[in-house]
Amino acid sequence: MLPANIISALQALSNSGKPLIAATPDSPKQVTKLEPGQQLQGSVQSKISEGLFKVQIAGQTLQMRLPGNIQSGDVIRLQVITAQPRITFSMVASTNPLSTPEQIGATARILSNIADLPLEREIVQQPGSKAVWQPGTAAPDTRLLAGALRDALGKSGLFYESHQAQWVRGERSINQLLEEPQNLLTGKSAMPSSANPQAGSTGPGQAASDNISATQAQTDKAAKPAGDISQPIAKELLHLVQQQLHTLEHHHLVWMGQIWPGQQMQWEIQGEPEQQAQQQDERQWSTEMELSMPRLGNVHARLVFTGSGLRLTLQAADSMTVELFNRALPQLRNSLADADIALLAAAVEKS
């Protein structure tokens, strides 16, 4: 589930039909207490940068992003949507008419409805029964296996919208998009006619528009019964949309699948939100893997990455596996050094 403050903001936005305006105090002093639903008049003091203004409201100066046609000296009316953890307003009226549309449309209502539902699946499953690595009987090449795992995660559907943007820019092929769950819905492609080399196209912009229309038509058809518009998302994709929202909010995902025939793996990735790190080099990413292997037994690996290097913890249920890992640590350290990765700390433990 999304945090309560995100859910309340989405629901408030859905009810108000207005774009949200987040405000930041101009000074660290305590902000006057404001109540959700309260309407206030604000005076635009000055323009800080494009779209960012200082606004005096309720005896205090706040920084907020406003429509581009707002100017210093304008008087605006705002309604408090949320007061915690951050003050958020919607614009309800202004002395000068706004040239930008204020209606968000159905998107906020859809997100609010989805946020109210329990997370159907916490784990992203590898579709089908095909293993990530198919080398026959040969031992996996570590570099190729890492690339195959990256591709498996990329094809999970979690990043589909960003992949569409890459396709429009010519950075991703149509065949790559066709491999993602959104285009496997009901066994028919949701790609535009430009995917067919026999069909004409006016360029990637038109193709993207066709893609959106085709996808919308297909999801509408596969959604709830006719006349039910409470959840206009295909039921086959609802869990995936939930996982996208969950990953975006928590910077956390869990993937499960076969890495080679007969070998299951659970893979967890956790990223530190960018705003929590003082500097980019301090941002921390962690990944954990669990395997049950024929010779090594149950193995758990945790890797923590920062800009300065890697911290590694290996756990094994079998004492001989622990001994084997300890003997191999110097070789691992050298291999990481060859890849310009500093092994800051390493621990091998019996689970």
Beta percentage is 25-35%
- CA-CA gap between termini: 31 Å
Order of helices and strands: HEEEEEEHEHHHHHEEEEEHE
CATH architecture of the domain at 4-115: Beta Barrel
Q: What is the CATH topology classification name of the domain at 4-115?
A: OB fold (Dihydrolipoamide Acetyltransferase, E2P)
CATH class category name of the domain at 4-115? Mainly Beta
- The averaged pLDDT comes out at 74
Point out poorly predicted stretches: 1-7, 10-18, 93-104, 186-231
Any idea what the shape is? elongated
Largest sheet strand order: 7-8-9-10-11-12-13
What does the model show?
By secondary structure, this protein is of the alpha+beta class. The chain is built from eight helices and 13 strands. The chain has a seven-stranded mixed β-sheet with strand order 7-8-9-10-11-12-13. Helix 1 (4-16) packs antiparallel against helix 2. The radius of gyration is 25 Å and the shape is elongated.
What's the short version?
The chain has 351 residues and is α+β, with helices and mostly antiparallel strands.
Secondary-structure map:
Blueprint: H1 4-16, E1 20-25, E2 39-49, E3 52-57, E4 60-65, E5 75-82, E6 88-94, H2 107-116, E7 124-125, H3 142-154, H4 160-168, H5 174-178, H6 204-222, H7 235-250, E8 252-260, E9 263-271, E10 285-293, E11 297-306, E12 309-316, H8 319-338, E13 343-350
Parallel strand pairs: 7-8, 12-13
Antiparallel strand pairs: 1-4, 1-6, 2-3, 2-5, 3-4, 5-6, 8-9, 9-10, 10-11, 11-12
Helix pairs in contact: 1-2
